[in-house]
C-alpha cells in the first residue's frame, strides 16, 4: 500500500501485474525520499510485478531542500547512454516567439549555463524587459505598478477571455522579506483603488526557519511534531504523537531548551473521554529536523485576495504551495476559495497555514504557468559589501537575496507571453546569475552503479523527442493560442508520503 497526500493506493501484487510509478518534479527528491521510493519498487519486483519508474524533472531549476541529489547524475548517465532516458527538446509553454528563443537559450547544454544566463539577460535588455533603478524604494514602487498594470490586462486564453478574466501574473523574489513587503504594498494599492475591501483580520501561521539554538523561538510560536526519520527511511513519532501542534510556553537560553505545551483527548477504561494537557522541555538542537516551527501573524483577508496554502490537508484535498483566489468570506470566517477552477470551502479559524500570494518566492513558483512573470532581483553592490558590519546590519542580506542561474531560469520560463526583470544593478545581476546551484550527492563515488540499477527499473529505452532544427534567422514555429487545458497544480515542495510494510530496508549508502 502506498499513501500519497493521505490517500491510500493499493498496489497489485503477483506475476503478470504491471505498475508505472511516475514522479513529477523529480529534482526535488532527497536521498531519503528516493530510498523509500526504491523500497517500493524493490518489494513490488520481489512479488513478480513488472515495475516501471518514471522520473520527470529538470536539474537546471531550483534544487531540492532535502539532502541528496538524484536527477542531475541520472541525466548525465542518460546523456552517455548508460541508462534509459528521454529528453524533451520541444518547449510548449512559451507562446511569444522571442520568449521561446530565450527559454531555449537558457536550457542549452552545449555551453556553460552561466553563459546562457548572461546571454538571456542581454536579450531581455534589448527587448526592454529589464528595468534598472538604483534606489530601493523606487524600485519596489516600479515593481508594484507593473504588477498592477499587468494584472488588469485581459487574459489571452479564449475561455478566460470570454468570461472577462484578467491574465495571470506571477511576481517572484528570492527572499521572504521582499515577498512580505511586496504583498503588503500590492494589497494596499488594490484597496485604495477599490478592487478589494480591507477585509477582516485573521490569525495565520507562517513558517519560521529553525536553527539549533533557542534564538529561533518565541513564546507563543506553534511547533508541529513531524517525527524522526529512521535509517530505513520510515518516519516514527518523536517527542509526542505525529502531527501534534504545541505552543511554545517557555525558553531556557542557558540550557538551550524549549518548553512546549499541548493538549489531546483520550479515553479511560470505562469509556469516559478525558482531555489532558502536557508540558515538556526539548533541546532546540534535537527539535531541528523533527519539528516544524510556525509563527502567528495577522493578515487581513477579503474577497478577491490572492492566497497561497502552506500546509498539506487531505481532508480539504489541498497541498502546500497551492494558489487560489478568495471568492467570498462569511461572517463565521468560512472562505470559498477558487483553486484555479476547483472551489474549496476553508474555515479560516481552523486552517491557518496560508498567506497572501501576489508575490511568491521562486521555490513556491516552480511548476507554475502564467501569462506574464515578473522577477524582483535587487543585488547588493560591491561597495555595500565592503562597508562596516554595523552598516550592513541596516540592509541585511535577506533583503537582497541571491538571483542565481536557476532562479533566473525558473522565473523567466514560467511565462507564456511576457516577462519583466527589476533590479537595482544590472552589473551586479550579471555577476549573480553566473552562480549555478547544483547539489552534490552523498552517494557519489559509488553512485554510478546505483544509478544503473535504478535505470534498469525505469524501463526500456524511449526515443528522445526531437524537433526540426531551425535555420538561422528563421522564426521558430509557435503554436497559436490553443484551447486552455485545465490547470494542474505542480507545486515545489509537494510531499510524497510512502507507507511501507515492516521489514522494508535499503543498503543504499548515504
Describe the structure.
By secondary structure, this protein is of the alpha+beta class. The chain has helices at 31-46, 71-79, 97-106, 113-126, 136-151, 158-162, 176-192, 284-287, 362-365, 382-385, 389-392, 397-400, 405-412, 426-432, 447-458, and strands at residues 2-4, 7-9, 18-23, 50-55, 130-132, 169-173, 200-208, 222-225, 228-229, 235-236, 245-252, 257-267, 273-283, 291-301, 306-309, 323-329, 334-338, 343-347, 354-356, 359-361, 370-376, 415-423. Strands 7-14-8-11-12-13 form a 6-stranded antiparallel β-sheet. The chain has a 5-stranded parallel β-sheet with strand order 5-22-21-6-20, with helices on both faces. Residues 3-7, 391-398, 442-451 and 453-510 have low confidence and may be disordered.
Mean pLDDT reading: 77
Rg on CA atoms, Å: 24 Å
Shape: globular
Distance between the termini: 25 Å
What fraction strand? 15-25%
How large is the count of helical segments?
15
Please outline the major beta sheet. Answer: 6 strands, antiparallel
The count of strands amounts to 22
Quaternary structure annotation: single chain
Classify the secondary structure makeup into a structural class: alpha+beta
- Percent helix range: 25-40%
Low-confidence stretches: 3-7, 391-398, 442-451, 453-510
Adjacency order of strands in the biggest sheet: 7-14-8-11-12-13
